């Protein structure tokens, strides 16, 4: 399912955090959302998730405006992996993943979820089966991130929104997670800090700078040394690496 | 799933046993078999019991015991809901200024003898209920943002502010009245008591808690979804604003209802949900019914002790809930501390 932001402006606490943002995230593609701290990446994800209404403009899921969708239906279409999910409750990893089934549960307790196996599949896909009975507060940052990914997958979403999904992960798990996401074939929008990872795993990029779209399009068209200098203020060489076969970013400063 | 289904029958049995025992204990001791006969006769069994036994067990003690069970269940239920909704471990049923507001109403009646034109003198219960509602409106008015959002941190702070104002008013009135008897009655009231609960009160309390339980059980999934905060709940399909308003209002009205019959009984609503969470996990479809059962059990036991420990005098029940609950809580907390 494609996702689109059309001329979206969002004002939060008197501050314009997104300013006339228009971006297209095509069906089945992995779109990277890059930009410096405070450029509006998380804000855009919250709007794409339908959690807030923009002051102006529209967010489209497929052909429908996300703000008009009933909350439960929206939660079956879009899953959000937040930065630094935290709870003080003594939940097990499996119970956290089961939260992802809430949009499919009946209002009254008792009726069993007809697709309970989805939880197992989601945990397998995120490689967290062995953590099932561990308490959430005993998990490492990386394990928590993977458990939350499994929770997102348990929602069986058509659109996956990831806010810094590779935070807290070691290099191996970063690559694993992004590879897992790619293999799903689900329309994905991921806010990423690491330009190299973004270049390696995304089909397209949307570059945000101070709430505005600085550039957007296929990775190879968007990412160049001029953009990195302009948006991040960093001197970098951006070129296609011969043996890796992909665009790499080597910074200097 | 921790502890399986065993807690349900265990707690239900413990509650039934405590109630049976409570009906026999008091200034007149009545044998449990006689108690069982009295109850059975009232339910249609053709048994012979003395009018005296029937009067004590069924007319005097039964409403009080049922009232205690309903109040304990209601307080524990509201505490569990408010802790999850505000993600605050210290949340309790009186969070929204309910106890302070109720005290203002009760004191106004006890000391000043408020009367309303056309109605006449107001009872302490009615005064407390009106005071609680007044405080609730004030707290929600302070906490709600312009857009109608109800951020839990502001709810907690507004509740604290209104509570302080109410406490100041209450102290002022009691001190300035110079009436020592009034001061004692006010202190008694603020510590809570089930002594005044008769059949109409008991039935009302049971009805309030039963309706609230059904309403709240419709929100088990929504409450689960708040585990990781409001954005997480929203992205799981929960209408965050509507859920907050509904549950805050339901719990506040229930608490105001309970307070108007029994005064403010502390500790149950704060501690019972934590106890249940420690033993049975935080999933609400288990937490809420088990909290209600455990709260009912705790308050029946506490009320029985309150009226039987010292001959000829009642110990304030709030003192006993703390004495019974705190050591158990401390022990469980230590045990949990060692396992993590």
Automatic annotation (TrEMBL), chain A:
Alphabetical UniProt keywords: ATP-binding, Nucleotide-binding, Translocase, Transport
| Cited InterPro entries | AAA+_ATPase, ABC_transporter-like_ATP-bd, ABC_transporter-like_CS, P-loop_NTPase
Q: Which Gene3D superfamilies match?
A: P-loop containing nucleotide triphosphate hydrolases
GO MF terms here are: ATP binding; ATP hydrolysis activity
Q: Which part of the chain is the ABC transporter domain?
A: 3-235
Superkingdom of source: Bacteria
Work out whether the entry's keyword set contains Transport: yes
**Pfam families cross-referenced by the UniProt entry:** ABC_tran
Q: What is this protein called?
A: Histidinol phosphatase
Q: Which organism is it from?
A: Streptomyces oceani
From TrEMBL, chain B:
Tell me which Pfam families the record gives: FecCD (PF01032)
Which CDD domains does the record associate with it? TM_ABC_iron-siderophores_like
Primary subcellular site in the record, as a coarse category: membrane
Query: What would you give as a GO molecular function for this chain, any one?
Result: transmembrane transporter activity
Which ranges does the record mark as transmembrane?
60-82, 94-116, 122-143, 155-176, 196-218, 248-275, 287-309, 315-333
Gene Ontology biological process terms in this record:
siderophore-iron import into cell
Membrane topology classification: Multi-pass membrane protein
Keyword terms of this UniProt record: Cell membrane, Membrane, Transmembrane, Transmembrane helix, Transport
Which cellular compartments is it found in?
Cell membrane
What's a GO cellular component annotated to this UniProt protein? Answer: plasma membrane
| Annotated family | Belongs to the binding-protein-dependent transport system permease family. FecCD subfamily.
UniProt-recorded name of the protein: Iron ABC transporter permease
Which species?
Answer: Streptomyces oceani
């Amino acid at each position: 399912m494609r996702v689109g932001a059309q001329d979206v402006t969002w004002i939060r606490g008197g501050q314009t955090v997104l300013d006339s943002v228009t971006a297209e995230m095509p069906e089945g593609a992995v779109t990277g959302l890059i930009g410096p701290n405070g450029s509006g990446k998380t804000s855009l994800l919250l709007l794409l998730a339908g959690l807030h209404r923009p002051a102006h403009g529209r967010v489209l899921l497929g052909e429908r405006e996300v703000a008009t969708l009933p909350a439960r239906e929206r939660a079956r279409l879009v899953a959000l992996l937040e930065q630094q999910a935290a709870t003080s409750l003594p939940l097990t990893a499996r119970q956290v993943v089961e939260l992802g089934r809430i949009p499919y549960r009946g209002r009254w307790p008792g009726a069993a979820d007809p697709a309970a196996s989805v939880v197992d599949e989601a945990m397998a896909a995120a490689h967290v089966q062995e953590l099932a009975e561990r308490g959430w507060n005993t998990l490492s940052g990386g394990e928590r991130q993977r458990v939350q990914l499994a929770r997102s997958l348990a929602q069986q979403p058509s659109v996956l929104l990831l806010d810094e999904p590779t935070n807290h992960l070691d290099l191996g798990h970063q690559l694993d997670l992004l590879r897992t996401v790619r293999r799903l074939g689900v329309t994905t929008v991921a806010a990423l800090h690491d330009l190299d990872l973004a270049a390696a795993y995304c089909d397209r990029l949307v570059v945000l700078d101070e709430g505005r779209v600085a550039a957007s399009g296929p990775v190879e068209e968007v990412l160049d040394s001029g953009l990195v200098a302009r948006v991040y203020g960093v001197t970098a060489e951006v070129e296609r690496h011969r043996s890796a076969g992909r665009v790499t970013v080597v910074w200097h400063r | 799933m921790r502890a399986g289904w065993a807690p349900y029958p265990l707690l239900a049995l413990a509650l039934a046993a405590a109630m049976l025992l409570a009906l026999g204990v008091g200034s007149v001791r009545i044998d449990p078999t006689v108690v069982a006969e009295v109850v059975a006769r009232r339910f249609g069994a053709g048994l012979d019991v003395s009018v005296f036994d029937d009067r004590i067990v069924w007319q005097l003690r039964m409403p009080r015991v049922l009232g205690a069970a309903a109040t304990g269940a209601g307080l524990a239920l509201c505490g569990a809901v408010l802790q999850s909704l505000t993600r605050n471990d210290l949340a309790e049923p009186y969070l929204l200024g309910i106890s302070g507001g109720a005290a203002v109403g009760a004191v106004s009646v006890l000391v000043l003898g408020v009367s309303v034109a056309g109605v006449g003198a107001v009872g302490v219960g009615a005064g407390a209920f009106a005071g609680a509602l007044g405080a609730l409106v004030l707290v929600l008015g302070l906490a709600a943002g312009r857009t109608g959002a109800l951020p839990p941190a502001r709810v907690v702070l507004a509740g604290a502010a209104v509570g302080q104002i109410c406490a100041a008013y209450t102290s002022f009135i009691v001190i300035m009245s110079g009436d020592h008897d009034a001061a004692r009655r006010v202190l008694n009231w603020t510590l809570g008591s089930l002594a005044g609960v008769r059949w109409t009160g008991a039935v009302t309390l049971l009805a309030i808690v039963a309706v609230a339980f059904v309403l709240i059980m419709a929100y088990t999934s929504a409450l689960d979804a708040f585990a990781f905060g409001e954005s997480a709940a929203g992205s799981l399909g929960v209408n965050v604003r509507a859920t907050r308003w509904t549950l805050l209002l339901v719990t506040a009205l229930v608490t105001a209802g309970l307070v108007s019959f029994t005064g403010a009984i502390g500790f149950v609503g704060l501690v019972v949900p934590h106890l249940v969470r420690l033993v049975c996990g935080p999933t609400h479809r288990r937490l809420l019914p088990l909290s209600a059962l455990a709260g009912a059990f705790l308050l029946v036991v506490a009320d029985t002790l309150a009226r039987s420990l010292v001959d000829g005098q009642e110990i304030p029940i709030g003192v006993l809930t703390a004495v019974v609950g705190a050591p158990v809580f401390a022990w469980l907390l230590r045990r949990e501390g060692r396992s993590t």
